[in-house]
Design brief:
It contains eleven helices and nine strands. It is α/β, with parallel strands linked by helices. It folds into two domains: about 250 residues, Spore Coat Polysaccharide Biosynthesis Protein SpsA, Chain A; about 35 residues, no CATH class. Strands 1, 2, 3, 4, 5, 6, 7, 8 and 9 form a nine-stranded mixed sheet that branches. The two termini are about 20 Å apart. It comes from Nibrella viscosa. Pfam families: Glycos_transf_2 (PF00535). This is Glycosyltransferase family 2 protein.
């Protein structure tokens, strides 16, 4: 991967860059963005997640950290940044989904998102989403692309999204990466928060639930990036059987809402062709070749 993007990301999350003094910024006309970080014993990465939020220097930010009762030094890090947080708690919870919903219930932002305590936002993410919201305030879901990063914040891989297709979401799998996902708070008020019965694929479920609703609008932002950290203790590194079972359950639940006469075989083939055509028309030949080589 290009070292320039890695250097930019590393510099962004290794020290405070946000202004801690000066008069309040004028927030008229820009959306309030609420970020929720669920965390439990992620002391090695939590500070970099926090900095990826605060270093956005976004003037209309609401930021909650919902900790599950960490005992590894995470609380010291949270207290370090407490003056810049809207709120935080450290208490036993029922898992990640419960923690995210705790934060969502406190949210007052126009747009809300969650970023796990080992993942990152890339520079400029909040301002890019705010710009898109100003241009299309009736949009329900904004989303972008994904960097895979290692334990030292080195970008090891890219995953590029494309415009949303509900059938591909159901039959092929997640079309939207939660690391670069922003939801209109009113949409969750209408259709409900994350499903707390799910341990691994709560993001897949909420996007599928919104995706099959008539009139729900999605917008892909090609210059919006989030970072997903691949590290041994990550919950997603241990998804195994339970995650696959949850995924199948959600697919079975929502496939009937598509109102399509075509079955899974057609849609899975269509989604692959659609993805290839999307990247070809944008001249992303190196990216296509790289993705094809990975599958060999």
């Amino acid at each position: 991967m290009p070292t320039g993007a890695t250097d930019l990301l590393r510099n962004f999350v290794t020290r405070p860059l946000f202004n801690t003094s000066g008069p309040p910024a004028d927030v008229r006309g820009i959306p309030k963005i609420t970020i929720v970080t669920p965390s439990f014993n992620q002391v090695d990465y939590l500070e970099r997640t926090i900095l990826s939020v605060l270093n956005q220097q976004y003037p209309n930010l609401e930021y909650f950290i919902i900790d599950g009762g960490s005992t590894d030094g995470s609380i010291d890090i949270i207290r370090k940044y407490e003056p810049y947080l809207t709120g935080w708690v450290s208490e036993k919870d029922r898992g990640q989904t419960d923690a995210i919903n705790k934060g969502f219930r406190r949210a007052t932002g126009d747009l809300i998102a969650f970023q796990n305590s080992d993942d990152l936002y890339a520079p400029g993410s909040f301002h890019r989403v705010a710009q898109a919201w100003q241009q299309a305030p009736n949009t329900d879901v904004f989303y972008g692309n994904l960097y895979f990063i290692d334990e030292q914040d080195v970008i090891t891989e890219e995953m590029r999204a494309l415009t949303f297709c509900a059938a591909c979401q159901v039959y092929e799998g997640m079309q939207v990466f939660n690391q670069s996902l922003f939801l209109k708070r009113d949409s969750l008020t209408r259709f409900g928060l994350l499903d707390e019965q799910l341990r691994f694929v709560m993001d897949y479920e909420i996007i599928t639930r919104l995706g099959v609703q008539p009139g729900v609008r999605f917008q892909y932002l090609s210059d919006l990036w989030g970072g997903f950290r691949v590290q041994p203790a990550a919950k997603s590194s241990n998804i195994a059987v339970t995650g696959r079972q949850e995924h199948q359950m959600i697919k079975d639940k929502y496939r009937g809402r598509l109102n399509s006469r075509f079955g899974e075989t057609f849609w899975r083939r269509y989604c692959r062709v659609r993805k290839l055509a999307w990247h070809l028309t944008r001249g992303e030949f190196t990216y296509i070749l790289h993705r094809l080589l990975l599958k060999k």
